[in-house]
TrEMBL record:
It comes from Nonomuraea pusilla. Residues 16-256 form the NADP-dependent oxidoreductase domain. Coiled coil: none annotated. The active site is at residue 49. Belongs to the aldo/keto reductase family. This is Aldo/keto reductase. GO terms for molecular function: oxidoreductase activity, acting on the CH-OH group of donors, NAD or NADP as acceptor. Keywords: NADP, Oxidoreductase. SUPFAM superfamilies: NAD(P)-linked oxidoreductase.
Amino acid sequence: MNSLMLNTDGVQIPQLGFGVWQVPAEGAEEAVATALRAGYRHIDTASAYQNEEGVGAAVRACGVPREKVFVTTKLWNGDHDRAERAFDESLARLGLDYVDLYLIHWPVPEQDRYVQAWRSLEKIYRDGRARAIGVSNFTVANLTRLMDETDITPSINQIELHPYLQQREMRAFHEANGILTEAWSPLGQGRGLLDDPALAVLAEKHCRTPAQIVLRWHLQLGNVVIPKSVTPSRIKENVSVFDFILDGEDMAAIGAMSRHQRFGPDPETFNLR
Ligand code: NAD
Protein backbone atom coordinates (compact mmCIF):
# COMPACT_ATOMS: atom_id res chain seq x y z
CA MET A 1 0.00 0.00 0.00
CA ASN A 2 1.48 3.31 -1.09
CA SER A 3 1.66 6.08 1.56
CA LEU A 4 1.99 9.87 1.33
CA MET A 5 3.81 12.14 3.79
CA LEU A 6 1.68 14.65 5.70
CA ASN A 7 3.12 18.07 6.60
CA THR A 8 3.17 16.80 10.21
CA ASP A 9 6.69 15.50 10.99
CA GLY A 10 7.03 11.87 10.02
CA VAL A 11 3.32 11.01 9.76
CA GLN A 12 2.39 9.01 6.66
CA ILE A 13 -1.11 8.33 5.36
CA PRO A 14 -1.95 5.25 3.26
CA GLN A 15 -3.04 6.76 -0.05
CA LEU A 16 -6.09 4.52 -0.38
CA GLY A 17 -8.52 4.12 2.51
CA PHE A 18 -11.96 2.73 3.25
CA GLY A 19 -14.85 5.22 3.63
CA VAL A 20 -17.81 4.33 5.84
CA TRP A 21 -20.40 7.08 5.28
CA GLN A 22 -23.86 5.45 5.10
CA VAL A 23 -22.54 2.14 6.43
CA PRO A 24 -25.17 1.33 9.08
CA ALA A 25 -23.94 1.08 12.67
CA GLU A 26 -24.84 -2.60 12.87
CA GLY A 27 -22.87 -3.45 9.70
CA ALA A 28 -19.83 -1.26 10.30
CA GLU A 29 -17.72 -3.73 12.25
CA GLU A 30 -18.13 -6.43 9.60
CA ALA A 31 -17.49 -4.06 6.66
CA VAL A 32 -14.34 -2.65 8.27
CA ALA A 33 -13.13 -6.15 9.21
CA THR A 34 -13.59 -7.22 5.58
CA ALA A 35 -11.65 -4.17 4.40
CA LEU A 36 -8.79 -4.80 6.84
CA ARG A 37 -8.60 -8.44 5.71
CA ALA A 38 -8.51 -7.24 2.08
CA GLY A 39 -5.44 -5.11 2.88
CA TYR A 40 -6.85 -1.63 3.61
CA ARG A 41 -4.88 0.10 6.38
CA HIS A 42 -6.80 3.38 6.49
CA ILE A 43 -10.41 3.91 7.63
CA ASP A 44 -12.38 7.16 7.23
CA THR A 45 -15.29 7.72 9.62
CA ALA A 46 -16.95 10.71 11.35
CA SER A 47 -19.07 11.30 14.42
CA ALA A 48 -21.93 12.18 12.02
CA TYR A 49 -21.78 8.69 10.44
CA GLN A 50 -22.89 7.17 13.76
CA ASN A 51 -20.72 4.11 13.26
CA GLU A 52 -17.54 4.94 15.20
CA GLU A 53 -18.25 2.09 17.68
CA GLY A 54 -18.23 -0.54 14.90
CA VAL A 55 -15.16 0.98 13.25
CA GLY A 56 -13.23 0.96 16.53
CA ALA A 57 -14.34 -2.58 17.36
CA ALA A 58 -13.04 -3.87 14.02
CA VAL A 59 -9.74 -2.00 14.35
CA ARG A 60 -9.23 -3.35 17.88
CA ALA A 61 -10.14 -6.94 16.95
CA CYS A 62 -8.43 -7.31 13.56
CA GLY A 63 -5.04 -8.52 14.76
CA VAL A 64 -3.17 -5.80 12.85
CA PRO A 65 -1.13 -3.70 15.31
CA ARG A 66 -2.87 -0.38 16.07
CA GLU A 67 0.06 1.64 14.73
CA LYS A 68 -0.32 -0.03 11.32
CA VAL A 69 -3.93 1.16 10.85
CA PHE A 70 -4.64 4.83 10.06
CA VAL A 71 -7.93 6.01 11.59
CA THR A 72 -9.60 9.31 10.68
CA THR A 73 -12.67 10.79 12.32
CA LYS A 74 -14.33 14.22 12.10
CA LEU A 75 -15.80 17.01 14.22
CA TRP A 76 -19.48 17.63 13.46
CA ASN A 77 -20.86 21.07 12.61
CA GLY A 78 -22.78 21.70 15.82
CA ASP A 79 -19.68 20.92 17.90
CA HIS A 80 -17.35 23.69 16.71
CA ASP A 81 -17.61 25.45 20.08
CA ARG A 82 -17.00 22.22 22.08
CA ALA A 83 -14.41 20.50 19.93
CA GLU A 84 -12.29 19.00 22.72
CA ARG A 85 -15.28 17.35 24.35
CA ALA A 86 -16.64 16.13 21.02
CA PHE A 87 -13.19 14.69 20.26
CA ASP A 88 -13.12 12.83 23.60
CA GLU A 89 -16.59 11.45 22.85
CA SER A 90 -15.41 10.17 19.44
CA LEU A 91 -12.35 8.57 21.02
CA ALA A 92 -14.57 6.85 23.61
CA ARG A 93 -16.93 5.53 20.92
CA LEU A 94 -13.95 4.26 18.91
CA GLY A 95 -12.43 2.73 22.04
CA LEU A 96 -9.00 4.05 20.98
CA ASP A 97 -6.31 6.11 22.78
CA TYR A 98 -5.63 8.36 19.81
CA VAL A 99 -6.69 8.92 16.20
CA ASP A 100 -4.31 9.36 13.30
CA LEU A 101 -6.20 12.27 11.76
CA TYR A 102 -8.94 14.53 13.12
CA LEU A 103 -10.80 16.76 10.65
CA ILE A 104 -13.25 19.65 10.89
CA HIS A 105 -16.05 18.13 8.77
CA TRP A 106 -17.47 21.35 7.23
CA PRO A 107 -16.64 25.05 7.61
CA VAL A 108 -20.34 26.04 8.20
CA PRO A 109 -19.99 29.68 7.05
CA GLU A 110 -23.23 30.90 8.67
CA GLN A 111 -22.01 29.78 12.08
CA ASP A 112 -18.46 31.13 11.56
CA ARG A 113 -16.82 29.14 14.36
CA TYR A 114 -14.27 27.10 12.44
CA VAL A 115 -11.30 29.24 13.53
CA GLN A 116 -12.24 28.62 17.17
CA ALA A 117 -12.65 24.91 16.40
CA TRP A 118 -9.24 24.81 14.70
CA ARG A 119 -7.55 26.24 17.83
CA SER A 120 -9.02 23.30 19.78
CA LEU A 121 -7.73 20.85 17.14
CA GLU A 122 -4.28 22.44 17.51
CA LYS A 123 -4.44 21.68 21.25
CA ILE A 124 -5.59 18.09 20.60
CA TYR A 125 -2.64 17.68 18.22
CA ARG A 126 -0.13 19.19 20.67
CA ASP A 127 -1.42 16.84 23.39
CA GLY A 128 -0.70 13.87 21.08
CA ARG A 129 -4.31 12.70 20.97
CA ALA A 130 -4.44 13.14 17.16
CA ARG A 131 -1.24 12.44 15.22
CA ALA A 132 -2.34 14.92 12.54
CA ILE A 133 -5.16 17.43 12.07
CA GLY A 134 -6.89 18.73 8.98
CA VAL A 135 -10.12 19.98 7.49
CA SER A 136 -12.82 18.93 5.06
CA ASN A 137 -14.87 20.91 2.56
CA PHE A 138 -12.79 24.07 3.13
CA THR A 139 -12.59 26.65 0.33
CA VAL A 140 -9.47 28.62 -0.57
CA ALA A 141 -10.87 31.53 1.48
CA ASN A 142 -11.48 29.29 4.52
CA LEU A 143 -7.95 27.83 4.31
CA THR A 144 -6.35 31.23 3.82
CA ARG A 145 -8.10 32.55 6.92
CA LEU A 146 -6.96 29.58 9.02
CA MET A 147 -3.38 30.00 7.86
CA ASP A 148 -3.50 33.76 8.62
CA GLU A 149 -5.13 33.51 12.05
CA THR A 150 -3.77 30.27 13.58
CA ASP A 151 -0.45 28.45 14.07
CA ILE A 152 -0.72 25.14 12.22
CA THR A 153 -1.44 24.64 8.50
CA PRO A 154 -3.99 21.83 7.99
CA SER A 155 -2.28 18.64 6.81
CA ILE A 156 -5.12 17.68 4.49
CA ASN A 157 -8.36 19.00 2.99
CA GLN A 158 -10.93 16.29 2.24
CA ILE A 159 -13.20 17.50 -0.59
CA GLU A 160 -15.65 16.11 -3.13
CA LEU A 161 -13.53 15.10 -6.12
CA HIS A 162 -14.10 12.70 -9.03
CA PRO A 163 -13.87 12.89 -12.84
CA TYR A 164 -17.06 15.02 -13.02
CA LEU A 165 -15.72 17.49 -10.38
CA GLN A 166 -11.97 17.68 -10.74
CA GLN A 167 -11.23 20.57 -8.33
CA ARG A 168 -8.19 21.83 -10.24
CA GLU A 169 -8.08 25.18 -8.43
CA MET A 170 -8.27 23.56 -4.99
CA ARG A 171 -5.63 20.97 -5.87
CA ALA A 172 -3.22 23.67 -7.07
CA PHE A 173 -3.81 25.71 -3.91
CA HIS A 174 -3.22 22.66 -1.71
CA GLU A 175 -0.03 21.78 -3.54
CA ALA A 176 1.31 25.32 -3.20
CA ASN A 177 0.69 25.20 0.56
CA GLY A 178 1.85 21.68 1.46
CA ILE A 179 -1.70 20.43 2.06
CA LEU A 180 -2.70 16.98 0.76
CA THR A 181 -5.89 16.62 -1.28
CA GLU A 182 -8.21 13.84 -0.13
CA ALA A 183 -11.07 12.88 -2.47
CA TRP A 184 -14.50 12.09 -1.03
CA SER A 185 -17.15 10.41 -3.18
CA PRO A 186 -14.21 9.42 -5.39
CA LEU A 187 -16.49 7.14 -7.45
CA GLY A 188 -19.23 9.76 -7.72
CA GLN A 189 -21.29 7.76 -5.21
CA GLY A 190 -21.84 5.10 -7.88
CA ARG A 191 -24.48 7.40 -9.39
CA GLY A 192 -23.95 7.41 -13.17
CA LEU A 193 -20.26 8.28 -13.33
CA LEU A 194 -19.18 4.63 -13.51
CA ASP A 195 -21.42 4.11 -16.58
CA ASP A 196 -19.70 6.87 -18.55
CA PRO A 197 -18.61 5.52 -21.98
CA ALA A 198 -15.18 7.17 -21.67
CA LEU A 199 -14.47 4.94 -18.66
CA ALA A 200 -15.74 1.84 -20.48
CA VAL A 201 -13.08 2.37 -23.18
CA LEU A 202 -10.30 2.59 -20.60
CA ALA A 203 -11.68 -0.35 -18.61
CA GLU A 204 -11.57 -2.52 -21.71
CA LYS A 205 -8.09 -1.33 -22.64
CA HIS A 206 -6.67 -2.25 -19.20
CA CYS A 207 -8.91 -5.26 -18.45
CA ARG A 208 -10.13 -3.47 -15.31
CA THR A 209 -13.48 -2.18 -14.05
CA PRO A 210 -14.54 1.47 -14.41
CA ALA A 211 -14.21 1.85 -10.60
CA GLN A 212 -10.61 0.65 -10.75
CA ILE A 213 -9.83 3.06 -13.60
CA VAL A 214 -11.20 6.00 -11.60
CA LEU A 215 -9.34 5.00 -8.44
CA ARG A 216 -6.10 4.61 -10.37
CA TRP A 217 -6.61 8.12 -11.85
CA HIS A 218 -6.93 9.52 -8.30
CA LEU A 219 -3.75 7.77 -7.17
CA GLN A 220 -1.75 9.04 -10.15
CA LEU A 221 -2.98 12.60 -9.51
CA GLY A 222 -1.60 12.31 -5.97
CA ASN A 223 -4.97 12.30 -4.20
CA VAL A 224 -5.69 10.36 -1.04
CA VAL A 225 -8.79 8.36 -1.94
CA ILE A 226 -11.43 6.67 0.27
CA PRO A 227 -13.95 4.62 -1.74
CA LYS A 228 -16.87 3.07 0.12
CA SER A 229 -18.57 -0.27 -0.44
CA VAL A 230 -20.20 -2.87 1.78
CA THR A 231 -20.00 -5.59 -0.89
CA PRO A 232 -16.98 -7.84 -0.18
CA SER A 233 -16.12 -8.35 -3.87
CA ARG A 234 -16.14 -4.57 -4.49
CA ILE A 235 -14.16 -3.91 -1.32
CA LYS A 236 -11.44 -6.15 -2.78
CA GLU A 237 -11.83 -4.74 -6.31
CA ASN A 238 -11.35 -1.18 -5.05
CA VAL A 239 -8.04 -1.93 -3.34
CA SER A 240 -6.64 -3.87 -6.33
CA VAL A 241 -5.36 -0.80 -8.15
CA PHE A 242 -1.62 -0.85 -7.48
CA ASP A 243 -0.56 -3.17 -10.30
CA PHE A 244 -1.35 -1.20 -13.46
CA ILE A 245 -0.64 2.29 -14.82
CA LEU A 246 -2.69 4.76 -16.85
CA ASP A 247 -0.63 6.45 -19.55
CA GLY A 248 -0.70 10.14 -20.47
CA GLU A 249 -3.49 9.66 -22.99
CA ASP A 250 -5.62 7.77 -20.49
CA MET A 251 -5.14 10.52 -17.89
CA ALA A 252 -6.06 13.17 -20.49
CA ALA A 253 -9.21 11.24 -21.46
CA ILE A 254 -10.38 11.30 -17.84
CA GLY A 255 -9.31 14.94 -17.55
CA ALA A 256 -11.70 15.70 -20.42
CA MET A 257 -14.66 14.28 -18.44
CA SER A 258 -14.75 17.34 -16.14
CA ARG A 259 -18.23 18.94 -15.97
CA HIS A 260 -18.27 20.71 -12.58
CA GLN A 261 -21.00 18.41 -11.28
CA ARG A 262 -21.42 17.95 -7.54
CA PHE A 263 -23.18 14.95 -6.01
CA GLY A 264 -22.92 16.38 -2.47
CA PRO A 265 -23.62 19.80 -0.91
CA ASP A 266 -21.72 22.98 -1.76
CA PRO A 267 -19.54 24.00 1.23
CA GLU A 268 -20.31 27.69 0.61
CA THR A 269 -23.98 27.12 1.44
CA PHE A 270 -24.01 23.99 3.64
CA ASN A 271 -24.97 25.12 7.13
CA LEU A 272 -26.62 22.04 8.63
CA ARG A 273 -25.90 21.61 12.36
P1 NAD B 1 -18.12 6.68 -3.33
O1 NAD B 1 -17.78 7.59 -4.44
O2 NAD B 1 -17.03 5.97 -2.60
O3 NAD B 1 -19.18 5.64 -3.88
C1 NAD B 1 -19.69 4.59 -3.11
C2 NAD B 1 -20.77 3.87 -3.87
O4 NAD B 1 -20.29 3.50 -5.16
C3 NAD B 1 -21.16 2.56 -3.19
O5 NAD B 1 -22.19 2.78 -2.26
C4 NAD B 1 -21.61 1.71 -4.36
O6 NAD B 1 -22.93 2.02 -4.71
C5 NAD B 1 -20.70 2.18 -5.48
N1 NAD B 1 -19.48 1.35 -5.64
C6 NAD B 1 -18.43 1.21 -4.79
N2 NAD B 1 -17.49 0.42 -5.31
C7 NAD B 1 -17.95 0.04 -6.52
C8 NAD B 1 -17.42 -0.78 -7.53
N3 NAD B 1 -16.22 -1.36 -7.40
N4 NAD B 1 -18.17 -0.97 -8.65
C9 NAD B 1 -19.37 -0.38 -8.81
N5 NAD B 1 -19.93 0.42 -7.87
C10 NAD B 1 -19.21 0.63 -6.74
O7 NAD B 1 -19.04 7.52 -2.33
P2 NAD B 1 -19.07 8.01 -0.83
O8 NAD B 1 -19.36 6.93 0.11
O9 NAD B 1 -19.95 9.21 -0.85
O10 NAD B 1 -17.59 8.55 -0.55
C11 NAD B 1 -16.58 7.74 -0.01
C12 NAD B 1 -16.22 8.17 1.40
O11 NAD B 1 -15.87 9.55 1.45
C13 NAD B 1 -17.38 8.08 2.39
O12 NAD B 1 -17.70 6.77 2.76
C14 NAD B 1 -16.86 8.94 3.50
O13 NAD B 1 -15.91 8.24 4.27
C15 NAD B 1 -16.22 10.09 2.72
N6 NAD B 1 -17.11 11.24 2.54
C16 NAD B 1 -16.80 12.39 3.17
C17 NAD B 1 -17.60 13.50 3.04
C18 NAD B 1 -17.21 14.76 3.72
O14 NAD B 1 -18.01 15.70 3.78
N7 NAD B 1 -16.01 14.85 4.25
C19 NAD B 1 -18.76 13.46 2.27
C20 NAD B 1 -19.08 12.26 1.61
C21 NAD B 1 -18.24 11.17 1.75
